[in-house]
Design brief:
Helix content of chain B: over 70%
Oligomer: heterodimer
CATH architecture of the largest domain in chain A: Orthogonal Bundle
Radius of gyration of chain A: 25 Å
Strand content of chain B: under 5%
Shape of chain B: globular
CATH class of the largest domain in chain B: Mainly Alpha
Number of strands of chain B: 0
CATH superfamily of the largest domain in chain B: MetI-like
Number of domains of chain B: 2
Order of helices and strands of chain B: HHHHHHHHHHHHHHH
Order of helices and strands of chain A: HHEEHHHHHHHHHHHHH
Largest sheet of chain B: none
Number of helices of chain A: 15
Radius of gyration of chain B: 28 Å
Largest interface: A-B, 96 and 93 residues
Number of strands of chain A: 2
Strand content of chain A: under 5%
Distance between the termini of chain A: 37 Å
Strand order of the largest sheet of chain A: 1-2
Number of helices of chain B: 15
Largest sheet of chain A: 2 strands, antiparallel
CATH topology of the largest domain in chain B: MetI-like fold
Structural class of chain B: mainly alpha
């Protein structure tokens, strides 16, 4: 064996291989400890009834069958989907629009960029608490502004079944600065020669935007879209802190429901099944986006090809 | 209009061009003023939550629920910080959060830069295989593994300690490894060869050559790691139950609905504001690294 190896690979190469494994070893160990092992165990658990105190009991596909007839599972799926399919396009167009505006040679651009980006820097519990009070129907500033500017009596927001998701979506739009920064960089990366060529040909601003800008920044839009899809299925903190899923489960996000099953009801088996369904859904939408990418994402091969 | 019909004589063309340029610059100006106005309105709206938070955290109880809201508190009080944040041991919560955040960030930067060196600068049997696996795990949502990982930590008795929040970071995150690898790849391989000729081992190349050369990406990694860990909520929520080990986000979420705080919105806002300060400070002092990092990860990823 050694001889055979020695013949196929030079001594130096084998030494380099050994060193390579020395360097990537922490990750390989971590991969087995925190990813591969747990994944296998998680598949197994999803076919068991496991409530921590007693050992797991094999129940076959019963968790998955129960899932189909679980109204809360469908509710959490609906909440998450509605939230993603509204907040994602709005956020995408919003951040792109702001980026285009800022790209108009506006004076003081770096200051504006800072201001717009600031809400994207902060996140987590403090922000959720802040928004919980901004949405307060009696003295929150959102309803106050609606009244002052438009004389609209604001809704009950987090206390209303039909307004709680719009509230979450509104809150997500506060962070459009994150996407904006990326689009801004992409916009500034479009070579100005192309625009000049268009101007000589007498192209209108709309034409330039649709035929030059959009194709040139489509890879970035694509990237943001994929990350957005993955991210919106992982909303947890805001729903936990602001509404705890209420009122009457109208903001029961998927991850919140999973958390409840695992850490409040201690149904680890059922929660594992939920986790795998989440995985399949995320993969489905990610692959769908990748599949569709060919038809609308333009890669300038010579420059970006790798 | 009629100019366009004229035969393309030199002078006529020049006149037409100048006209076009002149019109365009006026138009451009109008555009940029309109854009400026829209941006201005937008920035006022975006800043309002912050302003309300800051002003509320300096209000006395009587000013809390007034409509229209009080933007500049009168009188201004700092009692919300002195009293509201000492009624619960917020100092301790800060210390806990800082220990976890620093531990996890240092672990991630060290291990990711270490593993990335193997992927970027060394050749070996099976390297690409492992790299594809790394790429695949980048797509894997953490929710799939979190229950078994929790059960592992439960088995080895690490629940209610900081260890589950710090130790995994020392095994290198796939995304950070990928990021650092991409950065290492931008340095010419001749550097390594030169160092080898001078008698450097691989570890020395990593430690004395690649690490110093890769300061920008390390800075970005450290900053994002710090902010991510500082704001982390899910981890502490499932692993920590003892109130003396609470992190700031956990404490805020736990106490926000207790009577102590629902009656004192100003205390709650003071606490939330203080929780945001470290991230805001980092952002303001490292803005360039920050935005470069966002752009780098965003465009390259």
């Amino acid at each position: 064996m050694r001889v055979a190896l020695g013949r196929r690979y030079s001594r130096n190469y084998l030494a380099e291989t050994a060193w390579m494994y020395f360097f990537i070893l922490p990750w390989i160990i971590g991969f087995f400890l925190w990813t591969a092992g747990p994944m296998v165990y998680s598949i197994y658990l999803s076919f068991t009834n496991y409530e921590i105190l007693t050992p797991p009991v094999w129940v076959g596909a019963r968790n998955y069958v129960r899932l189909v007839s679980d109204p809360l599972f469908w509710q959490s799926l609906k909440v998450t989907m509605v939230y993603s399919f509204v907040s994602l396009p709005l956020g995408l167009f919003g951040s792109l629009a702001v980026a285009v505006l800022m790209n108009q040679k506006v004076p003081g651009m770096s200051y504006w960029r800072t201001i717009y980006y600031l809400p994207a820097v902060v996140s987590g519990v403090p922000v959720a608490i802040l928004w919980r009070w901004l949405f307060n129907p009696d003295f929150g500033i959102i309803n106050w502004m609606l009244w002052e500017l438009f004389h609209i009596q604001g809704p009950m927001w987090l206390y209303s079944r039909s307004w709680v998701l719009p509230a979450f979506i509104l809150m997500s739009l506060w962070g459009i600065g994150g996407g904006m920064v990326i689009y801004l960089a992409a916009l500034q990366g479009v070579p100005s020669e192309i625009y000049e060529a268009c101007e000589l040909d007498g192209a209108s601003a709309t034409r330039k935007f649709l035929s030059v800008t959009m194709p040139m920044i489509s890879p970035v839009i694509f990237f943001n879209l994929v990350m957005g899809i993955i991210g919106s299925f992982q909303v947890f903190t805001s729903s936990y802190v602001m509404t705890a899923g209420g009122p009457s489960n109208a903001s029961l996000f998927y991850l919140l429901y999973l958390y409840r099953n695992a850490w409040q009801f201690l149904k680890m088996g059922y929660a594992s099944a939920l986790a795998w369904v989440l995985f399949v859904i995320i993969m489905f939408f990610t692959l769908l986006t990748f599949r569709s990418a060919g038809s609308w994402v333009y890669y300038e091969g010579a420059i970006r090809g790798r | 209009m009629s100019e366009a019909m004229l035969p393309a004589v030199g002078t006529a063309r020049r006149v037409r061009r100048e006209g076009l340029w002149a019109r365009k610059s006026v138009r451009q100006k109008v555009y940029s003023y309109v854009a400026l106005a829209v941006i201005l309105v937008g920035s006022v709206i975006l800043m309002m939550p912050f302003l309300w938070m800051v002003s509320t955290s300096f209000k006395t109880d009587a000013q809390l629920r007034l409509i229209p809201p009080v933007w500049i508190p009168n009188p201004i009080t700092i009692e919300n910080f002195t009293k509201g944040l000492t009624i619960l041991p917020f100092g301790l919560f800060f210390k806990n959060t800082l220990i976890i955040t620093l531990g996890a960030t240092v672990g991630n930067v060290l291990s990711s830069s270490f593993c990335a060196f193997g992927f970027a600068r060394l050749r070996g049997i099976g390297r690409d295989f492992w790299f594809y696996i790394l790429l695949a795990t980048m797509m894997l949502p953490g929710q799939v593994t979190m229950i078994p990982v929790y059960l592992i930590f439960q088995k080895i008795g690490w629940l209610n300690t900081f260890k589950p929040l710090i130790v995994p970071a020392f095994f290198g995150g796939p995304f950070s490894i990928f990021l650092v690898r991409q950065f290492y790849m931008t340095h010419p391989l001749e550097l390594d060869d030169a160092a080898r000729i001078d008698g450097c081992g691989y570890f020395a190349i990593y430690w004395r050559l690649m690490l110093p050369l890769s300061r920008p990406v390390m800075a970005a990694l450290a900053i994002f790691g710090f902010i991510g860990n500082w704001n982390d909520f899910f981890g502490p929520l499932i692993y920590i139950t003892d109130q003396h080990k609470f992190t700031v986000p956990l404490a805020l979420s736990f106490f926000q609905s207790t009577p102590t705080y629902t009656g004192h919105l100003n205390w709650l806002m003071a606490g939330s504001l203080v929780a945001l300060v470290p991230c805001l400070l980092i952002f303001f002092f490292a803005q360039r690294v920050f935005i470069q990092g966002i752009v780098f990860t965003g465009v390259k990823g």
